[in-house]
Amino acid sequence: MGTDELYNFVFKVVLIGESGVGKSNLLSRFTKNEFNHESRTTIGVEFSTRTVQMENYTIKAQIWDTAGLERYRAITSAYYRGAVGALLVYDVSKHLTYESADRWLKELLDHADPHIVVMLVGNKTDLENLRTVPLVEAKDFAEKRGLMYMETSALDSTNVEHAFNEVLTAIHKKVASREV
Ligand code: GDP
């Protein structure tokens, strides 16, 4: 950490969901404003950070990506340790990736802090003509499980900032209320 990099909180946020739904691209869009058309082959957990300002606080968002391990169901408990937020991502054009959301949620709740902030994220809204998961269905699913919900496109940037910022704001509210 450089001496010029001062912050009040570090929030660890994990990305989970099936392989190919766009987790790495949501991460690179949010932290570097970059998008990669090729699927990555890197194996191993990694994270990127971005510093955001919230009220009087500077928050360092440390966003973790499974970096391919999810396809082997090889995510370890270290991945979830200390996480205060999670984006459970599916692809709006691939119904199977949505159907596995409950399994990911269970895995998350088995390993993470029960107070973790979770947002269900339907990515790839730019593929509207290929959509197989109706927005209302996913929204209803999220509401029933007490999750936040957002649809995004890492390709055209729709709602990417919004999704991460909503999660960070919700975490910040929880942290602030616990301080009182
Ligand atoms: P991950 O395996 O969940 O990390 O998914 P990636 O970020 O590697 O993306 C998988 C593939 O989907 C890549 O070919 C990306 O270019 C593509 N992709 C990711 N996000 C979007 C999106 O919002 N729209 C479209 N059309 N393609 C996307």
TrEMBL record:
Protein name per UniProt: Ras-related protein Rab-25
Membrane topology: Lipid-anchor
Record text on subunit structure and interactions: Interacts (GTP-bound form) with RAB11FIP1, RAB11FIP2, RAB11FIP3 and RAB11FIP4. Interacts (via the hypervariable C-terminal region) with ITGB1 (via the cytoplasmic region); the interaction is GTP-dependent. Interacts with ITGAV. Associates with the integrin alpha-V/beta-1 heterodimer. Interacts with VPS33B.
Source organism: Champsocephalus esox (pike icefish)
GO MF assignments: GTP binding; GTPase activity
Role description: The small GTPases Rab are key regulators of intracellular membrane trafficking, from the formation of transport vesicles to their fusion with membranes. Rabs cycle between an inactive GDP-bound form and an active GTP-bound form that is able to recruit to membranes different set of downstream effectors directly responsible for vesicle formation, movement, tethering and fusion. RAB25 regulates epithelial cell differentiation, proliferation and survival, thereby playing key roles in tumorigenesis.
Pfam families, per the entry: Ras
Family: Belongs to the small GTPase superfamily. Rab family.
InterPro entries per UniProt: P-loop_NTPase, Rab_GTPases_membrane_traffic, Small_GTP-bd, Small_GTPase
Classification lineage: Eukaryota, Metazoa, Chordata, Craniata, Vertebrata
Organism domain of life: Eukaryota
